[in-house]
Amino acid sequence: MKGNPELIDTLNDLLASELAAINQYMVHAEMAEDWGYERLSENFKKRSITEMKHAERLIERILFLEGTPIVSNLDDIHIGATIPQQVDNDHASELTAIKMYNEAIVQAGNVLDYATRDILEAILRDEDKHLDELEELQDQIEQMTLPTFLSTQN
Fold first, then answer.
1. How far is CA 37 from CA 59, 72, 135, 150, in A?
2. What are the extents of the domains in the chain?
3. Has domain 5-151 been given CATH number 3.90.76.10?
4. Which residues contact 31 (CB under 8 A, 6 or more apart)?
5. Confidence (pTM)
6. pLDDT confidence of 1, banded at 50, 70, 90?
7. Which tens digits make up the pLDDT trace of 64-113?
8. Residue 18: how many CB atoms within 10 A of its CB?
9. Span 140-153, average pLDDT
10. Neighbouring C-alpha atoms within 13 Å toward the C-beta of 10
11. CB atoms near residue 81 (< 10 Å)
């Protein structure tokens, strides 16, 4: 099925965001593991795997629409030097992703591609969940203080 070229471009923009998120979460996971924060590392790894699934769904849809997935483009990756910086950077990335998905959902509806819109809405629900999880981590760091929070992440 030949898809709307502008929508395919948007899907590739979303793919670039997902590919960057995979890398950012994975690096943060490995850093947390290296520092001995196994629980936090698992948290980041699970989020990275979800982002991989998002990238896969976008690639599948781009191909279905007879487009070419562009996997060589990545959005900027922001690696935090500390756990609070990592959580804050991930939070900012999720906010950007949510904005992009909301705009893409409107675009898909405008070109009457409701199947793509459904896929984007499902991914958006995951991104909303990620944002909520990151805000919980930010709240825990603030309420517990960083040393106490980190002591719970072994």
1. 33, 32, 18, 7
2. 5-151
3. no
4. 79, 86
5. 0.95
6. confident
7. 999 999 999 999 999 999 999 999 999 999 999 999 999 999 999 999 99
8. 26
9. 97
10. 21
11. 9
* CA-based end-to-end distance of the chain: 50
| Rounded CA separation 50/39 (Å) | 17
Q: SS3 for 3?
A: coil
CA dihedral 78, 81, 83, 87 (to 10 degrees): -10
Q: How far apart are CA 144 and CA 75, in angstroms?
A: 33
Annotated binding site for Fe cation: 18, 51, 54, 94, 127, 130
Binding residues: 18, 51-52, 54, 94, 127, 130
Q: Which residues sit in the known binding site for heme b? A: 52
**Amino acid found at 118:** D
Q: How far apart are CA 33 and CA 64, in angstroms?
A: 38
